[in-house]
């Protein structure tokens, strides 16, 4: 069994030290928790997004009519987040942390964050199992207080964006929630917890991934990105969650050139990252968000089923997804990582891999250079040979999916499409052609 | 022209040309006329070539002028284009990386040249060489406008793809003609072209032919095409500089003076311009902490013009009945770098008074130090609870959030050379 010791990130004020007390007193009730004692009375804003959304900008214009009741990113997320900030729920003011763009071709971003890991003891994490069962006894998001929740996020029933400032939390309806991360690495750092009360372990599924893409699309700003870390790739909490924050600068990974290697029949382009220290795949486009979500989730499911740790970055308003299998934690557990790199205590999770380096020591911040960032990330990457092997697995999974779904669900799709608006017509024709060919 | 951030581009997308209000059209017209005079329009119309002029200081970074050639190339009428952002010409296959490059150049007041796939009004895509350059004001050195020249890269790539379409298709000539369109926009696809795609995907699930459908691969411009961009740019700048002499607001192609300390960068103004609510930014590092930015809504609320408030301390909003203890509270919060919310009696330019629910918060730059204070105003009487939306207090805080993100991220380059 492979284990590493690391300082876990405190994402909630209700997170206990192993064997210790929570940083905020917990007890009796009346603390507005998410358990049955308090949840009945709870009210939380509810944002319902429009489900039938094209992945591509040009088509969006045709469907947009009228202003949404509330601007998702600029008003809802930032307004609620700033309010929690003024209530003092965060462990530090992230805007007081120095940050800079490191000179160089890629523009790696460095942040000096000395407060993020204070007062925590290193804990052991198992890194050789990407899928682990949910453990009710460990910290999970059903244990946070209501004040750390920002709003509920779900798809709208009537095809229009809807917003309810004071909606009850309907536990039976499996709400997905957005909560603050009390150790933010940038302004607006939040967690998306799909169907929180179902207590899903950290494991990608189609529905949850689509939800994450919708959140990026709804924010409608390429600088608001979502990220995912699998277990073994620096996730510390085994309760399904995505992270997101707002940093108005391009990430180096978004600037790296790519080479197209394939295109799915739903129009999703798959490319390989070039000239970047971490090898990875880029998924873009597709006729709908679902097309993109399906193919990426299939790739993720393939990786987790094969016990390969990975990170995912959702960029460009949900139109672009980076998938990065990694082996840093494994190397670390096997003692193959340079002591100098370990000393920096930088955990290369999705944000670091994307080029946003959160540094804990002033020395590392001052000496930050493109070469240093590159050296760390190069350790994260799979070797070329291993990457080829992993790609082969992924492509096998994606390809069989394409064929299977066409055969199994084409009739359903035709029926669904009949009741939909015009744009679906071309798709109907496509599936019919497909049936004939089969 | 690429607008600065996607929130602005998505809101631009939502605004149809009919929705552009008369006040913003006035602002757009004024943006051009006050710098070059309206006679410059005629002179620009006589120039050959496709180009647009945009104003980064107006929310959404809209087009304020489009040349005849540009309109012909894209198939739009002038009033469908003026007042809107560049996102309307982009679509499915427009390279996100190229757009990011343009966005970065605009943010950093630089010029930039990329090959870009754009879409005409009828939805057909075309490659063009896109070159954008800032227009600097001679006094103060701030960016006044951007000029973008577009040289179409005549259908080399598209023609090649058409022949691939014929080769890969069923041989049906009627179908392959539409194939060029089909691979760019699904809606105009006919069954034949879809079949082509499906046949190839049935073969191996995924299409590994990298040569096909490569409208997303940049189309290289020839030296001639690059030269013609620079010639067009020269001509435009000679018209603009010439006519700017007549208004006294001289412009130039290179930055002639270092911008004032108190001036905000173009990129920050673009970001702040998106915010619809009433707020001001003040600079505590300048003597008497003057206003360095005032939103349109603030000017509407108080009745002042922008140049009547910039450079002044906020105290002119006070009057005979303004409570001194409230002012003391504000001063104390600022001294302690703390946010505060107060209800204060303020006066408009016409000396009518209103209760201002004022929230003030420090705003830090990338070094972590307080760079500005943001003051967000809500007129108390107008605080009608909109039950559908966010509470006025939350919306007030959201302005603080947007300003904090803008100031922080746009100062991250400071100290390093802008690449």
Describe this structure in words.
The complex is a heterodimer of chains A (438) and B (419). Chain A is an alpha+beta fold and 438 residues long. Chain A has a single domain (29-382), classed as HIT family, subunit A. Chain A has helices spanning 36-39, 57-63, 72-86, 206-219, 252-255, 289-305, 328-333, 339-343, 350-354, 362-366, 370-380, 384-418, 425-437, and strands at residues 3-6, 43-49, 99-101, 109-112, 123-126, 149-155, 162-168, 177-180, 190-193, 224-229, 242-246, 258-263, 268-273, 281-285, 310-315, 320-325, 356-359. In chain A, strands 7-2-6-8-9-11-10-15-16-14-13-12 form a twelve-stranded mixed sheet. Chain A has a three-stranded mixed sheet with strand order 3-4-17. Chain A has a two-stranded antiparallel sheet with strand order 1-5. Chain A is globular. Chain B has 419 residues and is α+β, with helices and mostly antiparallel strands. Chain B has three domains: 6-153 and 219-252, 2-Layer Sandwich (Beta-Lactamase), CATH 3.30.450; 156-216, no CATH class; 275-410, Beta-Lactamase (2-Layer Sandwich), CATH 3.30.450.20. Chain B is built from 15 helices and eleven strands. In chain B, strands 1, 2, 3, 4, 5 and 6 form a six-stranded antiparallel sheet that branches. A five-stranded antiparallel sheet of chain B has the order 8-7-11-10-9, with helices on both faces. The radius of gyration of chain B is 25 Å and the shape is elongated. The chains are: A alpha+beta (438), B alpha+beta (419). At the A-B interface, α2, α3, β3, β12 and α12 of A face α1, α6, α9, β10 and α15 of B.
Brief write-up:
With 438 residues, chain A is α+β, with helices and mostly antiparallel strands. Chain A has helices spanning 36-39, 57-63, 72-86, 206-219, 252-255, 289-305, 328-333, 339-343, 350-354, 362-366, 370-380, 384-418, 425-437; strands at 3-6, 43-49, 99-101, 109-112, 123-126, 149-155, 162-168, 177-180, 190-193, 224-229, 242-246, 258-263, 268-273, 281-285, 310-315, 320-325, 356-359. Chain A has one domain (29-382): HIT family, subunit A (2-Layer Sandwich), CATH 3.30.428.70.
């Amino acid at each position: 069994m492979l284990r590493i010791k690391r300082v876990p990130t405190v994402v909630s004020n209700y997170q206990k030290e192993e064997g210790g007390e929570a940083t905020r007193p917990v007890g009796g009730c009346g603390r507005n928790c998410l358990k049955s004692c308090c949840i009945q009375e709870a009210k939380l804003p509810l944002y319902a997004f429009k489900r039938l959304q094209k992945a591509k900008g040009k088509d969006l214009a045709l469907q947009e009519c009228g202003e949404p009741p509330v601007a998702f990113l600029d008003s809802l997320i930032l307004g609620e987040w700033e309010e929690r900030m003024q209530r003092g729920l965060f462990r530090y003011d992230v805007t007081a942390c120095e940050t800079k763009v490191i000179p160089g071709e890629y523009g790696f971003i460095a942040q000096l964050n000395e407060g993020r890991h204070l007062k925590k003891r290193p804990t052991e994490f198992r890194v050789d199992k990407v899928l682990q069962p949910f453990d009710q006894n460990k910290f999970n998001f059903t244990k946070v207080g209501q004040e750390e929740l920002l709003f509920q996020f779900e798809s709208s029933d009537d095809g229009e964006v809807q917003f309810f400032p004071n909606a009850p939390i309907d536990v039976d309806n499996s709400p997905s929630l957005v909560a603050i991360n009390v150790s933010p690495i940038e302004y607006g750092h939040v967690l998306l917890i799909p169907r929180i009360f179902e207590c899903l372990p950290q494991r990608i599924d189609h529905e949850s991934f689509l939800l994450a893409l919708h959140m990026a699309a709804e924010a409608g700003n390429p600088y608001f990105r979502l990220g995912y870390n699998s277990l073994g790739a620096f996730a510390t909490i085994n309760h399904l969650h995505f992270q997101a924050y707002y940093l108005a600068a391009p990430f180096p990974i978004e600037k790296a050139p790519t080479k197209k290697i394939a295109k799915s029949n739903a129009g999703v382009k798959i490319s390989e990252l070039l000239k970047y220290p971490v090898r990875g795949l880029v998924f873009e486009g597709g006729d709908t968000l679902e097309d993109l979500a399906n193919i990426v989730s299939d790739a993720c499911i393939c990786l987790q089923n094969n016990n390969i740790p990975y990170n995912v970055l959702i960029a460009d308003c949900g139109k672009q997804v980076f998938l990065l299998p990694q082996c840093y934690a494994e190397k670390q557990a096997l003692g193959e990582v340079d002591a100098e790199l370990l000393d920096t205590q930088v955990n290369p999770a999705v944000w670091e891999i994307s080029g946003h380096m959160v540094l804990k020591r002033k020395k590392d911040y001052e000496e930050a250079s493109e070469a240093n960032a590159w050296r760390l990330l190069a350790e994260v990457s799979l070797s070329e040979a291993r990457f080829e092997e992993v790609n082969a697995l992924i492509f096998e999974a994606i390809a069989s999916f394409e064929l299977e779904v066409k055969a199994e669900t084409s009739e359903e799709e035709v029926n669904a499409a009949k009741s939909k608006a015009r744009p679906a017509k071309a798709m109907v024709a496509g599936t019919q052609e497909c049936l004939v060919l089969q | 022209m690429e607008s600065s951030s996607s929130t602005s581009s998505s809101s631009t997308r939502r605004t149809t040309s009919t929705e552009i209000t008369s006040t913003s059209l006035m602002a757009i017209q004024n943006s051009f006329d006050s710098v070059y005079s309206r006679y410059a329009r005629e002179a620009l119309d006589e120039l050959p070539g496709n180009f647009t002029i945009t104003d980064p200081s107006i929310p959404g970074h809209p087009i304020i002028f489009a040349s005849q050639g540009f309109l012909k190339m894209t198939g739009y009428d002038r009033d469908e284009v003026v007042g809107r952002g560049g996102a309307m010409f982009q679509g499915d296959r427009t390279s996100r990386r190229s757009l990011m490059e343009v966005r970065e150049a605009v943010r950093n007041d630089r010029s930039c040249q990329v090959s870009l796939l754009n879409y005409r009004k009828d939805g057909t895509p075309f490659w063009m060489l896109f070159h954008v350059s800032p227009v600097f004001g001679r006094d103060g050195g701030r960016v006044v406008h951007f000029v973008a020249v577009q040289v179409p890269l005549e259908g080399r790539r598209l023609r090649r793809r058409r022949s691939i379409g014929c080769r890969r298709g069923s041989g049906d000539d009627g179908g392959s003609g539409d194939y060029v369109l089909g691979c760019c926009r699904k809606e105009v696809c006919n069954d034949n072209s879809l079949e082509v795609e499906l046949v190839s995907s049935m073969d191996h699930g995924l299409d590994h032919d990298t040569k096909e459908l490569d409208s997303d691969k940049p189309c290289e411009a020839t030296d001639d095409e690059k030269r013609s961009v620079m010639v067009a740019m020269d001509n435009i700048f000679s018209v603009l500089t010439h006519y700017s002499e007549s208004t006294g607001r001289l412009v130039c192609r290179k930055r002639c003076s270092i911008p004032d300390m108190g001036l905000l960068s173009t990129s920050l103004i673009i970001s702040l311009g998106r915010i619809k609510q009433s707020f001001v930014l003040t600079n505590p590092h300048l003597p008497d902490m003057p206003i360095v930015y005032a939103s349109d809504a603030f000017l509407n609320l108080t009745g002042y013009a922008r140049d009547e408030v910039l450079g002044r301390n906020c105290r002119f909003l006070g009057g005979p009945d303004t409570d001194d203890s409230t002012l003391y509270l504000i001063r104390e919060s600022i001294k302690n770098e703390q946010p505060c919310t107060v209800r204060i009696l303020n006066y408009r330019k016409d000396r009518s008074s209103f209760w201002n629910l004022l929230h003030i918060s420090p705003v830090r730059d990338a070094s972590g130090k307080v760079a500005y204070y943001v003051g967000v105003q809500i007129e108390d009487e107008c605080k009608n609870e909109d039950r559908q939306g966010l509470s006025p207090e939350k919306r007030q805080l959201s302005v603080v959030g947007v300003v904090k993100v803008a100031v922080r991220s746009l100062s991250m380059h400071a100290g390093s050379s802008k690449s």
